[in-house]
Write a structure and sequence with these properties.
Blueprint (H helix, E strand, L loop, with lengths): L6 H15 L11 H11 L4 H14 L3 H6 L2 H8 L6 H16 L8 H5 L6 H12 L8 H10 L12 H11 L5 H14 L17 H4 L16 E11 L5 E2 L1 E2 L10 E2 L2 E3 L5 H9 L3 E13 L3 E12 L10 E2 L1 H6 L4 H10 L2
Parallel strand pairs: 1-7
Antiparallel strand pairs: 1-5, 2-8, 3-4, 6-7
């Protein structure tokens, strides 16, 4: 791997651009490691514009690590509602509890201890250490790998975990030790705004140092093998009212996809029509079934093709084991994006 010979000039060009052009983001106005930790977890697989209001509400609700440590699961999931990948916030709370119990509420300032916390991987550890504490540590995410694959002409597959070490080593050789926080954030910012999948090379502050640009290969990098084919699952969701006008919801299992969130009953569709499949699977009888909406919801590895219906529970059905909620109660429950979309289509 070829590392830039003019390292100081590269650092200066990158840092000067960052100081002048960086976006004003709320987590950039603090060096509180707890707040930076929250922002980094939220930003995983989520757009900056989406994260900002969630971040601001979250730190207002849980301003200290003790507050987050003490929060119950439903309160926690409600604050995360709509962000997806709910294991992130469960791991965040578990990690924060470790800090409160083991480190007296002070986030560790070394890679060994911080990496041992629940949910803290190499990137999050490096981001907290460099941004909050100013320690020159690598923080390699997808944006950083894209930038460095072009600047240094690294033609290794970035989808292979073993190749991450190449990029981590590159950051450690290039990092501006006197301002590690700005350097790492500048690499991320460059990847997010300029060195995007379709690069805007004419605006790039480090174009003169970019080997891929010099060789006309910037569009070919980074190398990334295609993911496995997405699995599609057809589901029917039923928003069911009882005679009192309340709605039937059920809680998902405590582990697995969308764990612990509330949803309208669903059934996977295979051969039988939706209503017949649902009645057979649930043992419930429905009446006055009407279509609400159809939509797709994409997870990282599967896509749900959801056909949503509204119905009334047949009064002859035994409903003693069922849990019904008023509209106000449903609003307070933690729900997934698909359920929120169905609620919108009911338009109560």
């Amino acid at each position: 791997m070829q590392i830039i010979e003019q390292k100081k000039a590269f650092q200066q060009a990158l840092l000067s651009w960052y100081e002048a052009e960086k976006r004003d983001l709320p987590w950039r106005r603090t060096d509180n490691p707890y707040y930076i930790w929250i922002s980094e977890v939220m930003l995983q697989q989520t757009r900056v514009e989406t994260v900002i209001p969630y971040y601001e509400r979250f730190i207002e609700k849980f301003p200290t690590m003790q507050d987050l440590s003490d929060a119950d699961e439903e309160e926690l999931l409600k604050m995360w509602e709509g962000l997806g990948y709910y294991s992130r916030v469960r791991n965040l709370q578990a990690g924060v509890r470790e800090v409160v119990e083991t480190y007296g509420g002070s986030v560790p300032n070394n890679r060994k201890d911080i990496s041992a916390l629940k949910g803290v991987g190499p990137y999050t550890a490096g981001a907290i250490l460099s941004i909050a504490y100013g320690i020159p540590e690598h923080a390699v995410d997808g944006n950083v790998m894209r930038v460095l694959s072009r600047v240094l002409l690294i033609e290794e597959d970035i989808a292979l975990p073993r190749n991450r070490k190449i990029f981590e080593q590159a950051v450690m050789e290039l990092i501006a030790e006197e301002d590690a926080s700005s350097f790492n954030q500048a690499l991320m910012e460059l990847g997010a705004t300029i060195c995007t999948p379709n690069p805007r090379c004419l605006l790039c502050p480090v174009r003169d140092f970019c080997i891929a640009f010099e060789e006309g290969k910037q569009q070919q990098l980074p190398i990334k093998v295609k993911k496995q084919k997405m699995k599609h699952i057809a589901l029917a969701s039923f928003s069911i009212q009882n005679e009192a006008g309340d709605w039937l919801l059920q809680k998902r299992p405590s582990t697995g996809l969308l764990a612990g969130l509330w949803e309208f009953p669903m059934v996977e569709l295979q051969e039988l029509p939706a209503v017949e499949a649902f009645e057979k699977d649930s043992g419930l009888k429905l009446k006055n079934v009407m279509e609400l909406t159809k939509f797709s919801h994409v997870f990282s590895h599967i896509t749900w093709e959801i056909h949503a219906y509204r119905a009334q529970l047949d009064p002859t059905t035994n409903n003693e084991q069922l849990t019904f909620f008023t509209e106000e109660q449903i609003e307070a429950l933690p729900k997934s994006k698909p359920v929120m979309k169905i609620v919108e289509s009911i338009n109560w």
